[in-house]
Predict the 3D structure of the following.
Amino acid sequence: MLAAYLRNDKNPALATGGVLAGGIFNIFGDYFFVFACDTGAYGAGLATAIGSFITFVVMLSHFLLKKNTLRLVRPARLFRKLREIGVTGFSTFFIDVAMGLLTILFNRQIVTWLGTNALAVYGVIVNISTFAQCCAYSVGQAAQPIISTNYGAGAGTRIRQTLKYALGAVAFFALLWTALSLGLPNLFIRIFMAPTAEVLQIAPAIFRVYGISFLLLPLNIFSTYYFQALMKPGTAFIVSVARGIVISGCLIFLLPVLFGADSIWFTMPITETVVAVFVVCMMVRYTKALKDRPAQPEGAGTSA
């Protein structure tokens, strides 16, 4: 939450510094507490807790700086604003919730139809998907305050420019994770686990089907931030729910029954493709509708 405030208050560097400070401490703290102090799992938890506290303190320092423009004020129509915040932010919240729900559904269906070796491969794919999602989050969170500020200012041209750069970053991450997944599947398997020969044998085919979804995953996730910034929470909600549970959830159960066990790996490629068609249509529609508000002459004001 603090990182979002800092980005919108023109201090994203401090947000990044806070996350890095806490993360670096966590890495070295794990080693120190777990091995040097021989505290086991307790030490790992302690390192994580201290790292989070360091991140919190670093970010909190923003409110002591002269450049801070945020102030506590008495809210007007509090419950209405809380409702608006909840509606606007629900779509990005649901992305993470849906990821957990999908993992549960996939786990159950894979064990039922394909067995534990396929489940082991899926466990690695989930981790790679998390990396791809985090890359999409980074683009969305960086672009959102710029887009929303210019939307409020009626600067449609600036929004289009920001969108162009954001889509370029999204395309880079999409190609990166897709290429790695298709080209180096067994490398990922060896990084995350000590695989058996059976796992190494089936992993490439699974990765090369499921990995196709990474071409469109960053775009679909970024779109929720874009639609939120343009005050289109309903569209963002449709995207997050459709890809997160509705389309994907139905396909997880239907594909193995209709086309055989291995077809379950097509669940996310099909889901991301269907959602991407909707995303592109809505993105084009809303972006075309953006207008540049005429600049107000200097010194102009309203008369009483």
Q: What stands out?
A: DSSP finds eleven helices and no strands in the chain.
